[in-house]
Amino acid sequence: MNDHKKWLSEYEAFLQSETTLVPKEVSALVLNKMAKLLNPSAWFVFAKVLGIQTLVGFLSLGVCHQFGMNPFGTDQSLDSWFMSMLGHNGCMIACGALFAGTGVLTAGYFLKIEELRALKQTEFLQTLALGAASLSLFIIFGAEMALTIAGLWFLGAVIGGILATEFAWKLRRFA
């Protein structure tokens, strides 16, 4: 936010200089455009993340079958390994974290830094919505699940989504 305030004060100083004859309409248009670019809508960011998550989530089902969904007919899956290492409950949490985490991390690569900042500001709400949307899509496509299993998967998705958001933010901010 400090960068935004600094930019605004420099812009106002520019407008006050004697050599500048900028019409007020142009100034308002520029400020409005910059405000939209610097502060993207959380809904817009969510739509982008959901689109990326849908694609990456579908691909992740090839390496970690979830709720019996195996779109590529692969024999090996991480869920077998998760099950043997973590048990059934841990497997569901790990699968949810992997599913949501890979999608959010991939989205973090494709989002603009301002969009990633908007995602970070609403990360808990957006991650909850992303997990709920993902579970809904599983159900729509015929996955059978019990409430406790879905709850554990959802918990993992929220944890994975938040951790991926934090990791993507740190990577993009300091890279």
Primary descriptors:
single chain; 175 residues; mainly alpha; 2 domains
Which secondary structure elements does this structure contain, and how are they paired or packed?
Blueprint: H1 2-16, H2 24-38, H3 42-60, H4 78-110, H5 113-121, H6 123-140, H7 147-174
Can you characterise this structure?
By secondary structure, this protein is mainly alpha-helical. The protein folds into 2 domains: 1-39, no CATH class; 41-174, no CATH class. Helix content is 78%, strand content 0%. The protein contains 7 helices and no strands. The radius of gyration is 21 Å and the shape is elongated. The model has no long low-confidence stretch (mean pLDDT 89).
Terminal Cα separation, in Å? Answer: 19 Å
| Residue-averaged pLDDT | 89
How many individual helices? 7
Q: What is the radius of gyration computed over CA atoms, rounded to a whole number of angstroms?
A: 21 Å
Alpha-beta classification? mainly alpha
- For the record, the count of structural domains works out to 2
Summarize the entry for a quick read.
With about 180 residues, the chain is mainly α. It is about 80% helix and about 0% strand.
